Amino acid sequence: MDIKTPVLADPAPIKKSRLSMHSSILPYSPQPQRALFATGMLLSIPRKKTGVLDDVRTAAWLDSMKSSSPPPKKFAYDTNADQDSSDVDVSYRSWTLNYPSALTSFEQITHFAKGKRLALFLDYDGTLSPIVDNPDLAFMSDDMRSAVKDVAKLFPTAIISGRSRDKVYEFVGLSELYYAGSHGMDIMSPAKGSAGFNGHPNCVKLTDKQQGKEAVLFQPASEFVSMIEEVFTSLIETTKEIKGATVENNKFCVSVHYRNVAEKDWKTIALRVYAILKEYPRLRLTHGRKVLEVRPVIDWNKGKAVEFLLDSLGLNDCDDVLPIYVGDDRTDEDAFKFLREENRGYGILVSSVPKESHAFYSLKEPSEVMEFLKELVTWKLSSL
Ligand SMILES: O=P(O)(O)OC[C@H]1O[C@H](O[C@H]2O[C@H](CO)[C@@H](O)[C@H](O)[C@H]2O)[C@H](O)[C@@H](O)[C@@H]1O
Q1: In this structure, are 283 and 306 located in the same domain?
Q2: Hey, whose CA ends up nearest to atom 4 of ligand 1?
Q3: Which atom of ligand 1 has the smallest separation from the CA of 250?
Q4: pLDDT bracket for residue 32 (50, 70, 90)
Q5: Which of 296, 329, 358 is the last residue of a domain?
Q6: Atom of ligand 1 at shortest distance to CA of 123?
Q7: 9 within some domain
Q8: Catalytic residue among 54, 78, 123, 334
């Protein structure tokens, strides 16, 4: 396999022309048996190493960094900071014509969910907990925790986070859920499973110590742990003089945070991360909310994690299952895309600013996510 330089892997641009609104609120067609594991999960993306190309790439990184996580109330692709707030509201309202609020469309959602088994997939940062400056302090509220707990008693519920699985479990602390860390590269799921993953080399059956249950542990990037550890150390070293920069080890990926770094230093961060990545052709970079994420070049993402979890929950290839995925970040788009393309279920984008997305619905912020979860509980209990 010829992989020469780091891969810049922003999700493909989302086409402006969305499917006509809610065209997929149609009976789902039966899905053919899916192969969960491609024969080779490594992506082969040959690159040339030239100075010009390097400049272009770091410039592209910088653009992505600038457009990442805009301040609330500012139109996502508007550069005019003086924009009147009423204009912003108008922009947001017109955006919701394409991405209706999951709260105001609740009846539509439940109408479609009637007679179906819901499965819930939730992102953590920016979805269950508000975005804060210090990633170590991104706690979810007790109210949110009890809303998630209640919903998980009624529907199979999983959290799929970019954090390490242990870290996200530490934040959430609920044994009723299933957890996937490192953007889906570390999944602890129930052992019900279908033939899809039995016997896969990265899949082992064990007893989940945290939850005391029989489980399946799937870590498709297990061979990268020591490389990630090494890169983590190098990234700490190379960013240590940049004020505000922090590096987080998420086991199968590393986050380089620049939320607290002065904008004038973002280019330095981009150049230094890029220089390290050039030494690791089997790693690539994705962008999140004021964070550069370094991860293995494997064909695995949150969308594949949703499919894996559905399979291990025994819910794949079932016409009567309606998966709902709630998330706020670019990496969640893979899951939205999977649900949309497979005509499976609904993605709900959490955003207070207009953004192009593969999601169907929107919610403004984590407090609305909590409200939505509570409504699901009320709806389900009233129908029992
Ligand atoms: O998939 P997620 O659960 O959304 O995780 C994505 C990243 O989330 C965290 O960073 C983000 O939230 C921080 C706390 O609010 C914020 O300070 C940071 O700017 C955001 O990017 C987490 O720290 C990362 O490791 C995750 O990859």
Answers
A1: no
A2: 125
A3: 25
A4: very low
A5: 296
A6: 3
A7: no
A8: 123
Residue 52 has pLDDT above 90, yes or no: no
Residue 315 located in a structural domain: yes
Report how far Cα 186 is from the mean position of its chain's Cα atoms.
13
- Predicted TM-score of the model (pTM): 0.84
Closest CA to 288 of 266, 256, 264: 256
293: its two tokens: 């994420």
Nearest-CA residue for ligand 1 atom 14 is: 135
- Tell how strand 321-327 and strand 117-122 pair up: parallel
The C-alpha atoms of residue 273 and residue 293 are separated, in whole angstroms, by: 10
- For position 196, which CATH number holds? 3.40.50.1000
267 lies in some domain: yes
328 flagged as catalytic: no
Do 205 and 239 share a domain, yes or no? no
Which atom of ligand 1 lies closest to the CA of 126?
Answer: 4
Domain with 157 in it: 93-220+300-382
CA distance 244 to 225: 26
Q: Is 179 in the pocket of ligand 1 (CB under 6 A)?
A: no
Query: 181: Cβ below 6 Å to ligand 1?
Result: no
pLDDT digits (tens, 9 = 90+) for 101-141: 999 999 999 999 999 999 999 999 999 999 999 999 999 99
Q: Examine the fold and report which residue of 268, 296, 324 is the final residue of a domain before the chain moves on.
A: 296
Number of domains observed in the structure of the chain: 2
Give the Cα separation of 48 and 65 in Å (integer). Answer: 23
Do 316 and 196 share a structural domain?
Answer: yes
